Amino acid sequence: MNLMVNTESAEFELELRLAGRLRLTRSDGADVTPTGRKAQGLLALLGVAPEYRRSRAWLQDKLWSTQPSELGGASLRQELARLRRLLGESRDCILSDHGGLGLDPRRVRVRVDPEPQDWEIAGEPPEFVEGLDVPDPEFEDWVRDQRIALSERYEAMRPAPAAVEARALAPVAEAPAFHPPSIAILPIVALGDPSDGSFLATCLVVDIIGHLTRFRRVDVIAHQTTMNFAAAGLGAAEIGARLGARYITQGTLWVMGSKMRLKFDLIEAETSRVVWSENITTACEEMFEVEAEIATSVAAGLMVEIDQIERARVRARDPSSLAAYELCIRGLDEILRVDPNCCLRAIGFFNQAVERERGYARALSGISRAYGFQWKYRWAQDRAAAMDRAEEFALRAIDSDINDASANAGLGWVALYRREHDRCIEAYRRAMQLNPSDADILAEYADALTHNGSAAESVPLFERAIRLNPYASDHYLKDLAGAHLVCGEYDLAIRTIHRMRRPQLSNVILAASYGLAGDIEAARRTAREVRSVFPNFDPETWIRMVPDRCEEDSLRFLEGMRLAGL
């Protein structure tokens, strides 16, 4: 199979342009830009969000901050309905669930940066969403900050005369060295009763730092160093500049009798913008048991948000200028699209990362997973060779850094699909020991337990992974539904699939669950949807791809498919 890679040939249903006047167009060039200012504001907010996704509460606060919460929520729903009616057949490009709204990155291309012709028209850098004026103080503050932040970026992109010819002849600049972002965890300020709160606040900071150091994709500034700078009373931007930290955190802890409340903010040091905030209120009879769980949750939340921001930042840059760490992010961004061409692009980015930082375990692990996907999704002409390459690079990643959790998890994934279950579980347990706060590894370990005949153990692990990662992909829920099916909890499997943003990705599991639950009509209806996408669907071939250790688990799945008519 010869798969050609062309980043410009990817088909998108919609294109959203944010440099200059906001424009939304279809792939055929038809202009579907909404006329309403709130709808345009909603698109702008989503277009620059990490992963093009924001919570409903956050969006409501930016567009209807002066309205009571219930009225603001109703206004958001009405605006969303109008926007979807305008989009017609492309309405599903707007993703929606109980937690938030987003743009489907597979179907919507967002262009934040201007193109050369934008200068030819105006003679100067365009403005971010030029002319968009939404009458809400929170949105006004947000769009002003965005315009200031992007104005220098746009100015730097101004094309010089004959820029196209010059770019064709210019040598490629040497890429910067490997350098992950750094974060400084500032002391948490204890309020209320200091005799109860000060020691607990210190424990939280130390434990959060300890959890973060297990993630190899971020550098954590030492606790004593951050204490010294915080004591000097410096602002976020100055602390970040002096420490060389891209991110800093600030927190407050109130302890009032039997209640404890923690507010924790992640701040982009250069701009002093709060990019993530967590509020936790809990009873504190068992204060230090609660503290350990809170520290784990906060550390996981920080890394999830940093990953989203870094991926959005790197996605907008020219690959030739990226460091090894950033190339790895681009590779991971591509591989998550689960597409054959994207998979090949991912391998290219990972290989460049290894060339620039020899022995980079995370990139080697990424190459392993890409070859594994070529095997799993039948994209490779020689599937056996693809799986061999997946194992080769998984072992190389561990040889490079035996204490890298993602490298050990990568070997666990390969062993699972080779049906080497003992080896698989051992690798995942080693990964969990190295980093128990990584939600992706936790979800993969849970799935491995399901296929190892331990589905009852896997369900609480899936639920914890989903709590740790609010941006949890549909794969978490799909695999959790599979665990419920194996446990005989068919109604729970069905409800879990309906929590997915794209439940159609799990129609085979859904059809089998309906069948086993006795709802034959729903099972047959879902089976027809499967056949409409996969006319030659063969349950025997499908079940051979499911690496169950226990034959009875596979037979139960087959029985569900039989009842559904598959």
From TrEMBL:
<dbReference type="InterPro" id="IPR019734">
    <property type="entry name" value="TPR_rpt"/>
</dbReference>
<feature type="repeat" description="TPR">
    <location>
        <begin position="405"/>
        <end position="438"/>
    </location>
</feature>
<dbReference type="InterPro" id="IPR016032">
    <property type="entry name" value="Sig_transdc_resp-reg_C-effctor"/>
</dbReference>
<dbReference type="InterPro" id="IPR036388">
    <property type="entry name" value="WH-like_DNA-bd_sf"/>
</dbReference>
<dbReference type="InterPro" id="IPR011990">
    <property type="entry name" value="TPR-like_helical_dom_sf"/>
</dbReference>
<protein>
    <submittedName>
        <fullName>Uncharacterized protein</fullName>
    </submittedName>
</protein>
<keyword id="KW-0802">TPR repeat</keyword>
<dbReference type="GO" id="GO:0006355">
    <property type="term" value="P:regulation of DNA-templated transcription"/>
</dbReference>
<dbReference type="GO" id="GO:0003677">
    <property type="term" value="F:DNA binding"/>
</dbReference>
